[in-house]
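As a warm-up, study this chain.
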Amino acid sequence: MDKFICGGDRGLCAQGCSRQDKQLNTYDYLADVPGGVQTTDLVEVQFKNTHKDYFINSNHLHLEKGDVVAVEGSPGHDIGTVSLTGALVPLQMSKQRLKPDAGTKRIYRLAREVDIEKFNEAKAREQKTMIKSRAIAKELGLDMKIGDVEFQGDGNKAIFYYIADQRVDFRELIKVLAQEFNIRVEMRQIGARQEAGLIGGFGPCGREMCCATWMKNFSTVNTGAARCQDVSLNPQKLAGQCAKLKCCLNYEVATYSEAAQKLPRRDIHLETEDQTYYYFKADILAGLISYSTDRHTATNIVTISWQRAAEVIEMNRRGEKPASLDEGSASVETRTVVDLAEQESLTRFDKSKRKKKRKNKNRQHDAAQNN
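Now compare it with the structure written out below.
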């Protein structure tokens, strides 16, 4: 089974560490409280990397995080890993809007060697089963995609996770899958974001996708988040590997919205003694606004702070016009973008080698003449 993370070197209680399986990690900050485990018989058990469930320790087994247990299934039994015990379990259940008496399933025993062997055999069948089930669904002409298969610990049942844009009648598919694999079949529909989280991968930022690492819940993402941050509405750049808008578009919306409240409206143009300036673009976080003398193109661009823009707007309201747009404002620091790849020639090492070869030839030639 999966290993547990130990954070003892960072001042954390090692007993509260969880499995190293990304977004389902849980740190039990009540693990070092005396008598905390005896406060409840409820136990949180995790299966694979997809979901958790809650069970009653009716046999009063001494369980710790990381113990592999056999639990009641529907039907049969399943194999999972204890991920949380003690007083924090009811709090986790209330967070998921589950009542404490909702955990009616029981924990049978600590998993035996035979149970773990059956579990490993069932787990080894998942990849082949998924590939074959996709072919069967295609033969039946179903507009759906099976993204993952999870076998129960005893191998008698499997959950097929699928994604579909429309409602699918998979009654015939269930019959064929049950006969083909001789198992009990359960179908669960997931969204495109959940599928991306199950498959995993790396985003354009170079880091592992958020949905596959730490995100548990998905919030709605719309193009308004991109407009608020002045991000180009390019579908290819805004879409993630799930073909939906990237979840990270929501991360800095609040910061940009707060900073944008200071900026003047885009439809306000600024009047000077000799020109009329129109809004062109803005650096929202830096509080800088660029104005152009042409409404549609970048002509005579002047970049000023939002404070200076507010001063000019107030002067225009009083019927006054400054001599220039940036008069009396602090000079804006211009940064030159340097391409590191252009600083040195890509063949600079070849040149040095050539020089060394020439030196060696000259030395050999001089030595030959001396002889």
